[in-house]
Amino acid sequence: MFRLGLIINPFAGIGGRVGLKGSDGEAIRQKALDMGALQLSGQKTEIALNEIKSLTKQFKIYTVSGEMGENLCQKMDLPFDVIYQSGSPSQESDTIEAVKKLQTLGMDLILFAGGDGTARNVFDVCETNQMVLGIPAGVKIHSGVYAISPQAAGLVTAQLIKGELMSLTSADVMDIDEIAFREGVVKAKKYGYLTIPAALEYVQSVKSGSTESEELVLDDIAAEVIESMDDDTYYVIGSGTTCAAIMEQLHLQNTLLGIDIVFQNQLYLQDATEKDLLTLIDNGKQIECYITVIGGQGHVLGRGNHQLSPEVVKRVGWEKFHIIATKTKLQNLTGKTLITDSGDSVLDKELSGRKRIITGYRDYVVFPVNIIHSEL
Question: How far apart are CA 18 and CA 15, in angstroms?
């Protein structure tokens, strides 16, 4: 019988859609909730566990009380035991103590839902020989311990439960300073390693930064974007340095780690939230979005741009989303495909296919989105 540990951080990712760029700390969590943020980590965990539901005779889940696992196991009618009682609301210490308890009981795999802060909590007390895997549910996901999507986490877990041969590998645990992050400064730090299953097509690479100067290429991309803008459309400029090049050429203040809206070449709204975008849509405004690729991972949705929620994507239309990236960044992708992890698995399937990528001035390539190797 496969022994599966399960920990859900119920507050993971709640700051994303409301533009808070994280959920570390009780004050930030409360602010996010007051702003109408939704708790989605449970839904993402459900997507993962759906991949193992048909195997219930082959595993048992050992989890935490309430929102940290128990409630979802009851809802899905999965075999489980509660091995740790969390506080209400749960805290980082509950994750830490739950990991300790799970290890004393001997888990084949500890599956946890959260972001980089949760990965750090697991790392703080995890033994080097304990296999773990993250379900991506946070705003900050720089660590290599996370699957590329909740479904991918479930698929890897199913392979392990069925006894398929799988190697192990060490993956980086990374995190950034959220206070600096909210000021537009990325201070990433490697904290160590955790042992994960080596299913490379399903597990993301550590987020990588630029290692060479590509200023001229970025200028060309920005020029192509700006030349195509018209006066009747509100342009959503995504996070990241590639998108920042657009704002720089427009001489506008940029939210490096947020979403800005440009109208008639002027800054209409800085650091916009999901609600701001939906309000524009409700008011009948034309919207187009420019997003880029997270270096080393390939994600274009679901990493650092949670404001572009499934509802926003559906109402704007995928054809109005323009992906910009240098050819070097595309060539360096581990999986050679772009990935959407919008939080809506049905939508992600609908977004699958090949999409035109702006790679320079009058320069484009066609690149696969959500297409695994066997489909290429």
Answer: 6
CA angle 16, 238, 267 (to 5 degrees): 105
Total domains in the chain come to: 2
Range of the domain at 85: 2-197
Residues 168 and 296 in one domain: no
CB 10 within 8 A of CB 68: yes
Together in a domain, 236 and 289: yes
Residues 135 and 254 in one domain: no
Contact 14, 37 (CB under 8 A): yes
On the CB side of 239, CA atoms within 13 Å amount to: 29
Amino acid identity of residue 244, one-letter, is A
Q: Do 87 and 227 sit in the same domain of this protein? A: no
261 has which bridge partners? Answer: 236, 269
pLDDT averaged per 10 residues, the chain (length 376): 95 59 56 58 93 96 97 97 90 94 95 92 92 86 85 94 84 71 60 85 61 69 93 95 93 89 96 94 97 83 89 96 92 81 90 90 86 49
87 within 8 A of 96, measured Cβ to Cβ: no
Give yes or no: residues 181 and 225 share one domain: no
45 in Cβ contact with 4 (< 8 Å): no
Same domain, 29 and 158: yes
- Closest of 95, 91, 102, 93 to residue 62, by C-alpha: 102
Burial of 210-248, coded b for 16+ CB within 10 Å and e otherwise, reads eeeebeebbebbbbbbeeebeeebbbbbbbbbbbbbbbb
